[in-house]
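Limitations
The structure tokens in this dataset are predictions for the assembled complex, not deposited experimental models. Users should treat interface geometry with appropriate caution, especially where small molecules or nucleic acid strands are included. An illustrative entry is reproduced here so readers can see what is and is not provided.
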Amino acid sequence: MANLKTVSKKSKAQSMGMHTEVLTGRTQQKFFNPDEAENFYYFGTYDVDFNKRTDLDVKDMTAPEANKEIDNLMSQGYGTIVIKNPQGKHSLGVGILNKLNLIFEGSLGYFGMGSCDGPIVRINGRVGWSCAENLMAGKVVIEKNAGSCFGAAIRGGDLICKGSVGARTGIDMKGGTIIIGGDAGAFTGFMMQRGRIIILGDVGINLGDSMYDGTIFVGGEIGSYGSDAVDAELTKSDQDWLKRKLKVAEIGENFDVSKMKKIVAGKKLWNYDNLEPTEKKGAI
Amino acid sequence: MCGIAGLIHRGKSSNVGSELQGMLQALKHRGEDSTGYALYGDTDGKNFIMRFKVGENVGEGSSSVMEDVSVYDKRKKIVDETLAEMGAKIVKEERTLPYSLRYEIDYNVKDLLEFSQRIESIPGVEILSMGKSLEVIKDLGNAKMVCDRYSLDKVVGTHAIGHARMATESGVDIKSAHPFWGYPFSDVSVVHNGQLTNYWNNRRVLENKGMRFMSECDSELIAVYLAEKMRDGATLEEGMKASLTGLDGVFTYFVATKDSLGMAKDTMAAKPLVLYESDDLVAMGSEEIAIRSVLPQEIDTYDPFDGEVKVWQI
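Predicted assembly:
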């Protein structure tokens, strides 16, 4: 779980190699402080034991009932919960701000795992639109395909889909990493502001359209580039990071990352950092 | 918002009425102003089946003007007389509701244009569908209400498409409800989720070419657009591919013919669609829960990409 704290540029996070970007101009960037993370808990969260495991069959439950029961189980100290028969229901597993090992034995509908911070989730099926929207931290792994708006507006964490994803993946994302094993649809990385997207397969039209910052790596063909999305040099450091990330994600471990394309913002549309707050208002 | 669903059995028939009811009912949160079914039933293929209405459902939040039932009777009588004049013999007649009728007609003409024009020249009369397999049933209310009202749960056939409507661009009435018949082509129907932004431009062009519009619902444009392409010799798939650039806006739509079912998704991929394909069944819907109503077991589904067109045969 993230603990956000402004620190100097030479922070411990940077010295550990967790963050290497050097920004110019004024920035509102916050750095992750690993020293404080263990002490940070949301109000109303629970101390759970990952070795304490239980099953929850949600076949005859509504989404609010199922989510309430997950919360109830966490309050009893269960740290590993297996959800049976999700059957494509919408909004399952939303708003979990707790350490938790959550496993779905089936597919989710729309908005699954939205607004979460901290859980490790494995979905042994498919997910609908807007999976893991606004994810702050944690890890969500989808074994099959995902719908559109996958990882919309995520701030952190790892979001992994082993199959293909729909359009607008990573739209408005502000941090974290999205990894796609298959293909991705149109407008991937649309208006992304930070973070990284890795696509091992092909990607549709308008890739990275109007992106402010962040990086997109593509292993296959690109339908077309969006406005202000440009190619960048794939460095040795990028390749090392990609190898490490794909290995951890259990996806494309043997993928030849040296042939991947790297797409970044041309930053022709990106000049807000140089503006005073009053000027920003005018620009918006 | 609206929700659409469809399924096609390959190499066999099934209880498509009941199956589609389950799929559309699962999508009722996407809109229940009206619900429509296009069912391709098992028939002997000898007679035409004409579903038509002689008035509107004026209850349940309808935006239509109240009419006396006696007006419906007069319109029906004129329809019967017109059919007799054209040499069309009514083999079977069902009047499910005062304003909704189903005729089986012995009529041996391939071009339905003149036939349809004459029937629809009767004020207040609209043909909902015409074909040797297709039956379009649409009315106000959710999927279960319409299914119960028209006893659709026992319909056996090969494929079906349907629509759960939240009225946005036009009125809450049957004429604006989906599916739309691909007038004047036998056994062609369309359902659509989205919004077409060049509706009026296309409508003016198509009307000048002799095509007919019955409502002011933008979705009707898809049926008319495809019908015009097919009239000019294009295949269904060619027409659908042309629609990706010919139609502007956001859309996912299904179109069905006597022996096929197709889907098209706009180049923005702004409207949802989930697909399931196997050797003997293809099922699709705006949300996976629609498919789950017929396939509750764990299955592999996927979202078609932007600008994708697919057609399946029975």
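Some entries come with short summary sentences. For this one: Chain B has one domain: 3-313.
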